Fold each of these.
Amino acid sequence: MSQNNFTNYGTANNYDSRDLSVEFAEADARISFITKTYLYVLGSIFALIGIEFVLLNTVNAEGLIQLMVQSRLSWIVVLILFMGVSALANYWANNSTSSAMQHLGLGLYIAAQSIILLPLLWLAIYFSGQGTNLIMSAGIATGGLFTLMTLAVFLTRTDFSFLRVILFFGGFVLLGAIIFCPVFGFSIGPILMYFGIALACGYILYYTSNILHHYRTTQHVAAALALFASIVLLFWYVLQLFMASQSD
């Protein structure tokens, strides 16, 4: 599931003009950028929730899920398509000349996430015996971890750009496990879930510090997409961990 961060990974480094970066911008521009970024993140989360509600309640979600996961190969194809769409969405969101293209990229990414999350949400609701309670608990835990990571950056003002290489290789390890574990019949165990949670927290630290230090003040859409992707990645593994604990 970390493939969503591969596609936006490193985009915060598209800043060459110091006078345009958040760290060196005027206070009003800096505050406006940060406010817009987090409003877009919040809006993206609510949009994702709304789309998932529609998919789970008004369409043949079970048929769509069966099509996606009917075989190991079909799920790998879905992941590859998701990576491709995510890359395109991230490219559009980082378009420096067209605001419409930036928003289209963010919208496309939200739609792609709603599809890739659907099977996991379906399992959590209908096979855990907890209904939506498990999803709500995972959402609260995700929000708590996100808040802690955000406060760690905002209170210390630390630049976590040194995590870039670690996250890059950690993401490849996680992506490889996601793709090859099903192929060879291995299940994704708790160790990998904890690794995914730790990696997602690292992404949140990294992108939050980029929001404070490195993004240009016109890149609020791209910044929101990167942070939103990290939050969804965190939720993905927190929910899996909660589901695994329920089945024990």
Amino acid sequence: MKSSIVKTLTTSLVVATALLTAGTAQAQTLNLKQDNPNLYNTFNSWVNAERLTIPENIVNTIELDPATLRWMSGAAPVEVYFINEAAAYRNILSFSANGGEKNVVFGDVSSPDSIKREADGPLALGDGVSLGSFEGDTQLDFFLTPTFRNWTGKTLGTKAEDNPLGLPHFIAKSYFDAGTNENWVVIGIEDISGEKSDRDFNDVVIAVRGIVGTPVHQEKVPEPMTLLGLVGIAALGATKLRRQA
């Protein structure tokens, strides 16, 4: 009898451990590139080419105001996916809800497969993290902290007025996926301020499922446009500079 009880308890423990392990593994294996490659490829196609500057007057008219991102009551849990990065720095991505405490989303936004490859980068393209659900209408802010060896730069946020020189470092575009009936926001981030900044907004690019934002006035935005690149505009600017040289 004692042996039977021990055996039953042991079996139950093994099953419970397996379930916990399976749950943990599932939480750690969100990947948009694997789960929905067409959607990932769409978002990745919007990433700006390296060092193609987006002029400030254009930055301020890209589709969504990044300081107005919200989780609306009744929406699906918020998930953040790494799309790509072209940063010389190793960046920390964090978020806060309703102006509260900052929580890390990705402690090192780097990958061996991204535009700027880091052999020891911990992320695969498309890797995701669930932020969970929130109570009611909730404003979400995202932040980026650049790091290099033992140096840590100023944390940059979605509110331009809080950044160095009062410049925007985040741009955003909405996307509605009709196949899954879900709202997405894709965000491009510039990680350096001042003279060293190339203002190409591709240093970290993420896609966030389950949030919306407030559109900005867009009459002056030329068509067609890509999200982060406005590659045609940047390329024309580069061509003009070469001709003048």
